[in-house]
Amino acid sequence: MKIAIIGAGYVGLTTGTCLAELGHEVICVDNNLEKLEKLNRGKSPIFEPGLEELIIKNQTAGRLTFSDKIKPAVEQAEVIFICVNTPPKDDGHADLKYVEQVAREIAGTINGDYKVIVDKSTVPVKTAEKVKETILRYGAGKTNFDVVSNPEFLKEGTAVKDTMEPDRIVIGVDSEKARDKILELYRPLIEKTKAPIKVVSVRSAELIKHGANTFLATKISFANLIAQTCEEAGADALEVLEAIGLDERIGAQFLKPGLGFGGSCFPKDIAAYKKTLEILGLDNSLIHAIERINLEAVRRFLRKIEKELWVLDGKQIGVLGLAFKPDTDDIRNSPALRIIESLKKDGAKIKAFDPQAMNNAKKELPGIEYAENPYEAAAGSEALVICTDWREFKNLDLERIKKLMVTPTIFDGRNIFEPKVMAKLGFRYFGVGR
Ligand code: UDX
Ligand code: UDX
């Protein structure tokens, strides 16, 4: 099938590449020329395990191309995916200006052939209806199209795997023709993985995505609330949460306490859902509480550092991890950045290391030192602050780290080490909820 992907970001690029891998002919369109230049050289603009190899493979096979021109891509495509970003406005509402812009461009391009336009970006309920209205308004009377909601559930760091082995495929459609087209598109995946397919109304599909992300964010904030309780009451949050998670109705995933959730999705999506509740006249205090606990996770962690180190002015602090989670170079809404900004404001000298995210961080965070490796970040530091649970941090030579530091103190925002082991090794060690 001929596919156009508009917006080659984390979601669009992964979706387009995986659809090419399934045998479709895909053009990814993006207005960022620097990104396109990289892609055309077979380089992925983002660090995402397995993605670059798949891009090269499908480019070489002639199934995957990149362009800055919407018109020719849309003209030849049977299915068009809208994957542009939907950033939050100041009031939390999703800013849909890029979605509208793309819808207008599609309207100016579609001809008489039937097209399915798919909302892949996470958007508030009823957005697909607006996209449809927009295409009708600017489409010179062309009605031979359907708008579908097909939310993406991929996680950064495991994006390719999540796309190729999905837990479920959600298709929100109002027409049988569109349903059949999207089922045909995913047939190779459905046959291979036996992933459950949920064919639902367009509005339901839009709400499934916001609902799923809000629930996951709720689990994380709940875990952080338990961690706070444990710190005040003298219990161990990992023991408590592990046992809670063994209840099959609850499940163990997304119950890790730490510095709270960051990234480009959860903070933005729960803010948008909160706004949706407000617009619908419903109580949104649950979402307020999730957000408050998430902010408090970072605040409490900073208070711990200040209490232990006392005066921060002039002290060198090593920071391990800048990405909002491991296996990505993405620093959008990363708790690490908030922590560094705050420590910097108090006069601390920061020496940071991340295995993948330093190039992105250098643009956002000038004025701090970047280390070549974790040991260099530890050398001469009065404390090490762990902000991301990269696997390689778990295997550090802690004896070596201890010798390199001025005072062997570790603030572990992701609980990657065991308090007892660390104490034995001679560290002053502070985890979260332990
Ligand atoms: C996406 C979705 O859009 C978002 O709603 C979802 O919740 C998370 O995933 P993401 O892929 O992470 O966002 O965004 P980003 O990496 O910013 O990619 C968007 C791409 O669209 C960028 O490459 C940008 O250059 C491109 N773009 C944006 C266009 O080509 N045209 C535009 O008008 C706007
Ligand atoms: C999320 C959703 O998981 C995915 O389904 C959706 O499509 C996009 O948004 P992503 O933001 O890429 O994916 O990463 P995710 O693994 O969900 O982590 C989000 C944040 O929560 C990270 O900052 C992570 O460190 C944090 N987290 C996650 C916790 O603090 N504790 C946990 O138990 C799990």
TrEMBL record:
EC main group: oxidoreductase
Pathway: Nucleotide-sugar biosynthesis; UDP-alpha-D-glucuronate biosynthesis; UDP-alpha-D-glucuronate from UDP-alpha-D-glucose: step 1/1
Gene Ontology biological process: polysaccharide biosynthetic process; UDP-glucuronate biosynthetic process
Chain sites annotated for binding NAD(+): D30, K35, T86, T122, E156, K268, R332
Record field: catalytic activity: UDP-alpha-D-glucose + 2 NAD(+) + H2O = UDP-alpha-D-glucuronate + 2 NADH + 3 H(+)
Enzyme Commission number, as recorded: 1.1.1.22
Record field: transmembrane: none
Keyword Membrane: no
Family according to the record: Belongs to the UDP-glucose/GDP-mannose dehydrogenase family.
Name listed for the protein in its UniProt record: UDP-glucose 6-dehydrogenase
Organism: Candidatus Buchananbacteria bacterium RIFCSPHIGHO2_01_FULL_46_12
Lineage: Bacteria, Candidatus Buchananiibacteriota
